[in-house]
Predict the structure of Peptidase inhibitor family I36 protein.
Amino acid sequence: MDRDTLAGGEPRAGPPGREPVAIIKNAPELGRKVLPMKLRLALLAGSALLGGAIGVPAQAQDITPRAVDVIEGHGEQACPDGAVCLYRDYYGNGSADAPILRTDQDIPWLGDYGFNDTTSSACNHTPVRVVLFEDAYFEGSNLIVYPGDCVNVPEWFNDLASSVRFV
C-alpha cells in the first residue's frame, strides 16, 4: 500500500503529501468524512483550552473590582479594607452621618462625584500611599496619606482636594 491508496487499494482523496479526509469504509451510505487523527487531536486540544478559559468564573481569577461610591456614614469603620475614604468633616465625620467618598482607584476629578473641595479627613485602608491633590488631574499642592492612616487634613489643605492618586 502506498501513501496515495487506502487499505484494499482504494485511492485516497486529497492533495499529495497531506493526510486526506477519507470516507468511512463501513458506512458509505452516510457519506461521512473523518478528519485525520492529528487534526482531530489538535481541534480537541484547542477547544479544551478555549472552554477552560471561558469556563473560569470571574472570582477565581483574583480580580478585585474597582469602584467609587459616595455613602452617608461616619468613622473609620465605614471605610472597608482595600479602600481610601474621604470624609466631608474632620474626625471621619465625627459622630454624625455625612458624605464619605470610598474608592480603590485614581480619581482625576473629585467633582465627578460631588466631592470637589470637600475633604476634611481621610482614611487609607490600602497597602499603598495615596496622594490628594489640590487641583484636578493630579496637579497642584498635595498631601500624602500613608497606608493604615486615618487623618484630619491640615488646615491649609481643608476643603481643597480635587483629585486622588494611588502611588
Notes: The CA atoms of residues 63 and 81 lie 15 Å apart. The first helix runs from residue 37 to 55. The chain has a mean pLDDT of 79. Residues 68-166 form a domain with the Gamma-B Crystallin; domain 1 fold (CATH 2.60.20.10).
